Every structure is written in structure tokens, then in C-alpha cells.
Structures
1.
Amino acid sequence: MAAPGGTLRLRGGAPRRGPLPGFHLSLVTTLLWLSGIVLLPLAALLLRPLELGLSGIWHSLAEPRVLAALRLSFLGALAASLVALPAGLLLAWVLVRYRFPGRRLLDAAIDLPFALPTAVAGLALTALYAPNGWLGAPLAALGVQVAYTPLGVGLAMGFVGLPFIVRTVEPVLRDLPREAEEAAATLGATRGQIIWRVVLPALAPALLAGFAMASARAVGEYGSVIFIAGNMPMVSEIAPLIIVTRLEQFDYAGAAAVGLAMLALSFVLLLALNLATRFWRRA
């Protein structure tokens, strides 16, 4: 029977244990792990730059080299994710809606950036797009240089961000009922109208979520970028490399200041994308 307050009791009057024993122990363990892995490092990142003082933090971040690296990291990540967005949608559409020889191989290849070590990915991209590489040489003949330029940085960022878009959109597209498309077709809608007014509105939240994850991964990417970037100050140098350089110079507070700036900018970016996703879902 149910005792006052909703507690279940046996016939003898003793309370029955819940179906999930050890809740308090699990909660304490989870909070300890969360504190040790997430909260304490974030607290250290927030407190360490204070050694420089507010003026020192501003001076450390206002250097032209740092500003150029931050601009390249964030604008490059956004541009690469925007380019990867239609490509990821197309790949997800092909994998879900079509059956063809080699489909399983293509499906496995999309996850390759997840498993491939970042340094190996950077070396492979550099070998392909260097001025004497397989793809870099024909492009150089056309006057397009990819390696050691911001274009190469964006290429590496798009390489690591594309799987996030595909894997985010794919399950939503698989669950999208085709009856809605068939109903729109029976009402006289063209294929373009069906995609624009039926398919894309249903996929928009997943596309925004995939774009957010791809951008967040691209901003902090290091191994896949430094090889193809060339790391030329004010040209192709990324913000994570600034942090590594300052750490090698034992400027821990300066490195933490750059990391704090990246954390703040990433938080603003993700917050804006999450708000856009919620607004789209309500609309």
C-alpha cells in the first residue's frame, strides 16, 4: 500500500527499496567526477589569468598576433562549417535515401576523422595539397594555393567538422516520414518546393545542432591544422598554437588568458546557436 508522501510500504510496514539502489552513491560519484574533470580545470582557467591583472589580460589579448589568430580560428571555423553544411546534408541524404554499391564503405569513411589521429590527418592533407602534392600541384598551376594559407586552415577544419553534421542529420532524416513528401506531391508541389517547404524545415534543428558541433570542434582543432597551416604569424596562425607557444615560453598566465578568450567566444557562439535552434523549433 502507499504510505503518506507516496512511499511504498510492504504488508509488514517496512518501506520498500527503490528500483535503482545506490542513488546517493552514484550522485556523489558523478559530482566528484564532474568537479575533477570539468569544474576544477575551468576554475583554474578563470583564475590563472588574474595573475596578470585586468590590464595585463587586456594587453595580452590585444596583441595583433593574438587578435589575428583568434579571428582566423573563429571565422575559419564558421566558414568551414557553413561550407560543410550542404555537403553534410547531401551525404546524409544519399546514405539514407539511396542504396548503391559501396554505400557501406562510404558510410564507414565518413567516420574516419573521428578515429584518425589528428596529426596523421594533418600530414595527409599537407601531402595532398602542398604545392607539389597530388592535388596541390594542379591547383597551384591554376593560381590557387591551399597549403600554408587560410584556405588550408579552413579545409582542415571542414575535414574534422563534416562528420558531425552528417551524423546529426542522418537519424532525423531517417525518421522523417515520406508520407509528408508524398502528400505535398499529390497537392501539386514540385520537388524543389517539397525540399524547401517540407524537408528542410523538419531538418533545420538538426542542421543547426550539427553546425554548432562542427564549429566547436573546428575552433579547438590543433593537430589537423598546424601542418597544413604553415603557422605564419598574422597569416595562417591559429589560436591554439598561440597557447602552445606561450606554454613553451613558460608564460602560463598569458596562455590561460588566450584560453579564457577562446572559452568566452565559444560560449557566446554556442549560446547563439542554441537560441536559434530553440526559436526554430518553436516556430
2.
Amino acid sequence: MSSLNREELICLFDIDGTLTVPRQRILPTTEEFLLTKVKPRATIGLVGGSDLSKIAEQMGGEDVITKFDYVFAENGLVAFKNGQLLGKMSIREHVGEEKLQTFINYALGYMSKLILPIKRGNFIEFRDGLINVCPVGRSCSQAERDQFAAYDKEHLIRENFVKDLKRQFPDLGLVFSIGGQISIDVFPIGWDKTYSLNFVGKDGFKEIHFFGDKTAPGGNDHEIYEDSRTIGHTVLSPDDTIAQLKELINL
């Protein structure tokens, strides 16, 4: 239980599996709880691996950047505070086109050899701060996402893919992180979700709490969860997030 006020306490949230069912829209009851119960007691922010358009889609619209005090898209590489853009990073400029193409060509070749229950389209999604690699293809339906997620849990498709990428590209300065149900996020070292702490760390909070579901090693919440600047909370579902928040702010 925290006795800090709103200016001293910030709660940062992963989105998929933490505030929403993966790739689904936030429930009205969850949104209402965050905005009417938590926000008056604590500063609130989102830290998602997706780009802003996908975060807005899941969180009920583009006004998400004004509903939440902070919105960190692409791990914080596209950052907003009180609706205003704080900064944007470019993986293309940082890594260089030649190296990125070498990686992309290899990843596409690897995925072309995978035999899965289903395959669809959009296997590589290029964002400002990261590359999202998806063996099943991001254009799959929700039912197909769930089918791949179950298959991946048994056959470790993404885990083995990450191991192979680490062997193939040990000197490229990239991190390969499993995120959500179906994909792998690829970004420069240090461009994980801890990047968002570069912004909130300047604002004088006494406690920074982070809530996420992929907090184990290899998950895209792990680095910020274990960072010395944060108090990490592993959650199992949006309902679990709400339960832990009630305990934290004494509701």
C-alpha cells in the first residue's frame, strides 16, 4: 500500500495481457477504473511495443494520449506526455539500411521454411523504433492468433527463432524479444521498455511501478520489470492488474 500522492507515484502499464486481452480493445470497466479510480491517486502511463495507431485502437481512440499522462509507443521510442510528443527515435538511422536489409532478408528466409498450422501475410512490420517479426503473419484473425499462440507454447517456434537470430547476428547490437501472442520485437540494445524511464525519471517520482505479463527473461516486459528504478508487478490478466492496483493505492 502506497501513501504517496499523484505527483510522487507513477504506474506504468504494458497493454496486451495487462490492460487488455491480447490485441483486443480495453473493456469499458477497466478503462473507467484506471481513469476515475487510479488516475486521481497516481500518474498513469502506457508502455507498449506496438505503434501508436495500434495502441489507440486497443485503448479506445486517438485521445489515449490525453487520457493517460504518458503514452510510450514502441517501447518509449515514440513518447508522449500530456498529449504532446516528447521524442521519436529511428531504428533505420541508428542501425543503417544495409544491416537492416541483411537481417530482414535472413528473417524472411527463416520463416519461409517454417511449417505451421496456418500462415497469413505481413511477416515483417517496420516501425519507427523497432522491427516486428511475426512467423504466422500479422494479418491473421484473432482465432488464428490464438491457434498459433497455443502451437507456439508447445513447439517453441518463437523461442527457437530467437536463439537462431542471436547465433546469426551476435554483433549487430540488436535485442530479440518475444512479445504478445505471435511476434518478436527487434530493436537496438537499450531500446527496450526501459527507454521510457529516460522520460519519467526526470519528473521527480518517488516510486515508479510497472505492471506487465511478459516479465520472465526473454519477454518484452522483463528489462523494465527488473530495472532498479522500478517496482515490478507480474500480472496474469487485466482483472489481476486491477486487483493489484486496488491493493497498491488502497481502494
3.
Amino acid sequence: MKNTQFKQLFTQYKLLALMVAIALIWAFFSWKTDGDFATARNLSNLMRQMAITGILACGMVFIIIAGEIDLSVGSLLGLLGGAAALLDVSHHLPLPATLALVLFCGLLVGLFNGYLTAYAGIPSFIVGLGGMLAYRGVLLGVSGGQTIAPVSPELTALGQGYLAPSLGVALGVLLVALDVLLVWQQRRLLALHRLPLRSLWTDGLRVLATAAAVGGFVYLFNSYEGIPLPVLLLLVLLGVFSYIATQTVFGRRIYALGSNMEAARLSGVNVRAIKLWIFGLMGLMCALGGLINTARLAAGSPSAGTAGELDVIAACFIGGTSMRGGAGTVHGALIGALVMASLDNGMSMLDVDAYWQMIVKGLILTFAVWVDVATRSARR
């Protein structure tokens, strides 16, 4: 009985547990690095590194919720990032043309992966595995195995630029105002339909907590240079993908697909089309991640994105996405990405051997899946 109650409690407050885990990780690395880990500069760099994994996780969480998997995302990120570097360095295309071409190619490749899975009937695991090898081979072929550099300052600014501190403050105020508006609108709708309302002080405390978090977030980044542009892009994607997941018919059908695909099909859901477009979105996120990665490094590297799919999938599982599909959130996946980035950053600062870093990340991934399995009965 106590074991069941513990599982139910853990399931209900899983994200809170993750936030506590992040706080403990940060406290440990701050202690071991004599405070260097917790400096504004390092945390800004950490969030910039996490943004690439987070961008891919936004697309991957939809794929896993739908009961599929995509192992090609790391190689596709490297290929599209290399394509962006080639277009910029070798062909000197203006930035808008480079962005448009790379994003279009990402969408096209993603739709191709989706077509193979949804219409050709090839398991997504095999499609992803084949893509992981093929896209890496294409990247090595077009780059000749050489780093493509230097990219233009305009492209570099996408990965290395910052939002001005004054604009960061304005953005923080806007986000808090938006949160107040959403809470008020939710209370109004509940009252209109004569549904139970939470106490006013509960909503007030939630708004205050959000305001404190946003204020701390803006203050932290403004203590260094400002909010990094990749982090700003990730915040926009968080809002867009969360809206799709919770407020659209398309999002509800993704969850229905992962919960029971046959039941969704019999209910009139176009299962193939949903799969096609979630892979298309994944390709688009690979293009964005590739652009940001190339801009951050100021070069296109033939090794970019190597094993990146493992970090992305681990971030989704750590953030509460079920390996069997049907359950998961975008914000949970991004918290998972922050856990992975924090471990990478902290262990690198401590000069931990690469093999130990792989062991630790592998154990954490295994633990996250075990938690999903152990709490599944509680969710039922």
C-alpha cells in the first residue's frame, strides 16, 4: 500500500522532483568547482549548449508520444549544419536565403522519413538507423571530412548573439503579464461553465512563483551579456509546441496515436498523416538545431551531432515522456535536456574522463526508463 502511494506521489510531482535534482546537481558542481559552475558566465554557456538539445527534444517528444522513435536526428543535424556552412562559406548566399534553404531541406528530409514510416511501412527504428548512417556519410562526402570555416558574422550572431538587457527585462515583464492573463482567463472560463475554482490565493502564489522564476532568469542572464539568442529561440519553441500539444486537435491526436493507435484509426484519425507531419516537424527542428550549432561554433564540423540522438532521447525520457507512447510534455523534455546539459558541463569542468561521462549518462537514462516502468501502474 505504501509503495503504491509513493508511486502515485512521485508520478504527480515528477517535474518537481526533476527541479530538485537539478538544484542538487548545480549545488554539487558549484561546491566541487569552488563556485565557478554557478557564475553567470558559465550558466549562460550551459543554457546555450542545452538549447540545441532542447530544440531537438521539442520535435522528438512528439515522435515518442506517438509511439515512434528517430535515431537519425544527430546525423541530420550535422548534415544540415554542414549544408548551412557550405552555402555561407562556399556559395556566399545571403543569410535569409541560407536559412530558408536549410529549413526547407530539413522539412523535406523529415517528411521523407515520415513517408517511409507511415506509408512504406518501414519501422521507424530502421528508418532512423538507416538515416543515421546515410546522413553522416553524405556529410562526410560533401565536406571532404574537413571543417568548413569561417562562417559569416551574420550567421555566427544567431548562435553567439545576445538580447540586449533592456529588451530582456521587457520580455520578462511581458511573460509575467501573459501568465496573469492566462490565469485570469482560465478562472473566467471555469466560472462561466460553473466548474470548481481553485482558491484565489493558490493562483496568486503560482503567479508570484512564476514571476520570481522569470525575474531570476532575466537577472541571471543580464548579469553577463543578456539572454543568448538560442535560449530565446528555445523559449519561443516551448510556447509553440506546448500550444500544439495542449490546445490543438493535431496535438490531441498525437497522444491518441501513442495511447492506442488502432482505436485512434477506428475513430477516424488519419494515422498516416499524423505520423508524416510529426517527422516533418522533427526534420525542421534538426534544421534549426544544425543552424544554431554551426553558428555557435562559427564552423561546420563533419563530427557535429555525433551521438546527439542519445542525449535527445534521454532528455525526453528523463522529462517524463513514456517509452511506450501516449504520455509526455514539452516542458518536461526541456527540463530533461537541462539535466543532461548540466551533467555534461559540470563533468567537463571537473575534467572527468570521457568514459565516465558516458557511464553516468547511460545510468541516468536507464534509471529514467526504470522510473517510467515502475510508475506506469500508478498512472493507470
4.
Amino acid sequence: MTLAQRLALAVYGAVTTLAQPLLRRKLRQRGQVEPGYLDAVEERFGRYGAEAASRAWVWVHAVSLGETRAAAPLIAALREQQPGLRLLLTHGTATGRAEGQRLLRPGDRQAWLPWDTPGATQRFLAHFRPTVGVLMETEVWPCLTRACRSAGVPLLLVNARLSEKSLKQAWRLKTLSQATYGGLHAVYAQTEADAQRLRQLKAPVQGVFGNLKFDATPSAAQLATARRWRASPAARPVALLASAREGEAAMWLAQRQPGALWLVVPRHPQRFDEVAALLAGAGLKVSRRSQWPESGPSAADWVADVWLGDSLGEMALYYGLAEVALLGGSFAPLGGQNLIEAAACGCPVVMGPHTFNFLEAAERAQACGAALRVADMGEACQTATTLLNDGARLAVARQGTVTLIDGGRGAVQHTAQAVMAALARP
């Protein structure tokens, strides 16, 4: 490591240490809306109680909901290859932590990844002493990377992606970024384009395996429930606005087409009430998923103007209920959400112009007919309504989802083998 890199890391570590009071304040504020952020707050600062440390942890960090779902098939494959594996699963968001609880087995441990200061990361590693660390997708932190290297913990970045926009941002702090990515043990990218961008930051790219999300299996129980509810005599065709980001529900509201029953699912749970108020304020009759009985939507719910998907962990149910989905995050310059999950549930998508977070997957989906590209929300609403009324085109699009998923599988086994190789190192 060069002198300039050591200096950049030292300055960064000093800044994040001084910023800790701001983090505490942010957690208190966020916890007022999402109480999960108030759980085990001291873990955020590298304090994990008196539990005896183990040298056998296989540590997987999945920052949020999407990364945790992507980690699920990898964790399952690792358990197959190493029976008795002790999983340490860390997160950064409350939704990721809630989803991660589903992946735990007796003997596993779940914790917050600490705020990226020299002291907190060193305490984290000293407490758990993981055998290997696996970071999902984009979660690379300077102090954590340096601490792992100093402690001799091989740190892998898997399912790695780096957009052109993120590369430009990282390049503004080139010295710090190259010190950080260059400190990783190994990187396994989703695409060759991701690999090329990562190499510019000195990342040790050792393979291009594809996207783990193609190997994820949606909840069979939720899909079965969706089929049962769609068989109701009162059922109507449903179009879905999936994982809507800030501003997109308002865009949809201004452009929605009459006739269809729309289901709006905000990306973040803290916006459920905000979106409900927006819809009701527009004079729409809103039916909220959280208020449905166990038997599902009633006849009255089926004649509502719009459904609000205000629950966590039920995207497979929502995709199963819908004939077609608009891809959230793609109508504002936010990079798009995960369209692979929709395809795995057999739901075609209509996507806007902004899909740089999943560029190759979006291009492949469009090529095989699982996704349609449009210029804006108005065209998206029109396209979705047209598909709802054209059974032949809808059937072709559904077949495209099968083609997309079948052609994308395989990353899990390659990635699991790479993690096992790191575990087996001398």
C-alpha cells in the first residue's frame, strides 16, 4: 500500500469516527418510522456483548432486502457443501435483517455490521473471528477491508456489480477507492462489464459468474396463495407497480389508465402510510393488504380502485397476483429494482429508461421478451393496459420469463465453490 493510500485511509477513518454521533441521531430518527433500527444499536459500533467468540463462523454480509434474497441460494449451497456450517449473517437495514431471519438455523448468529470506523471494525473481527467474509454485490468499506486484511480474514466480494455511475463516483476518491478494492481477497463479478469497471479500481477480479438472483426460488406458498386468490369469482386482472421508489407513485397516479385494478407496492416500508395518503387524497378507493383477512381480498376489495401492498416479504405473492408489472426505480434516475424476481414468478415487466443497476439483466429480459422498454411512466401505463387486454401477447411475454430464468442459472454453484476454496486455504 502506498503512502498516499495509507493517508487516505487514515483521514477516512478519522472522519467516520467523528461522525458517530450523527449516526446515532439518524438511527433514532429512522427508528421512529421503522422500529427495527432501534434493535441492538450498540452492535452498530462494534459492541456485541460477552458471547464467546468462535473461529468457525462463515460470515455473509447482505446489507438490505435485495442482497439478503440474493444470498439465500448461496447460503443453501454452502450448507450443502459444508454440513454443520455456522453462519454469521450481517446487515445494514431493518428490512434486510427481517428477511435474514428466515435464513437462520440453530447455532447461527445475526448481527448488524458496524459503522465503518477503525475501532468498530476491529472489535467486530476480534469478537467473531470469522474464517471467511463474503460481501454481497456492492458493500465494500475501507476500514472493514483493511481490518480484514490485517486480521488475515479473506474477504470476498461476490455477485459483484459496479455501474458506470458508481465508477465515476468512486474515481473522485481514486486513491481511497483503489486502496479499498485492492485490499479484497477476491472479487466475482456478475458481468464482464462489471469486471472491467472493478479492475479499474484495482479489484482482484477472479471470475465472472453471472447473477445469483437467477438461482433464487420464489416462495411456492405465496405463489400458490396468489393462484387461489385469483380464482375468486370477483377477481379482476391486476397490474402491479413494483417496488416504487420516491416520486414514482405520484408519476403513476398522474398517468394511470382506467379499467385495470392496480396494485402499488412501495419499495420502503416507511412510505406505506405516505403512499396510502397520496392515493386516498386523489379520491381513490384504496384497499390495503395489511387489512385483508387470511382468506385474502374480499369481493369489496376486488372492486377497489387500487390495492396498496403494505407488507414485507411478500413480493412473490404480489407478482403472482399480477399479470404484468411496472419496474420500480426505472422511471426516475435510480437504476431500477430487481426484475429477475418478477420473471422467476412468471410476471412480465415494463421498464422505464433507467436500469443501470441491472443493465445486462434488463437487456437479456428485453431480448427474450420478458420485459418491454418504454420512455416514461405514461407509456408504461398504456403498455401495461394493452398487455392486460391482449392474451396472446401476454402469453408470449410469460414464456419469455421462463427463457430468461432458465438461461441465467448457474452462478450459485460457481460462487459456492469459490467461497469453499477460500475456506480451505492454508
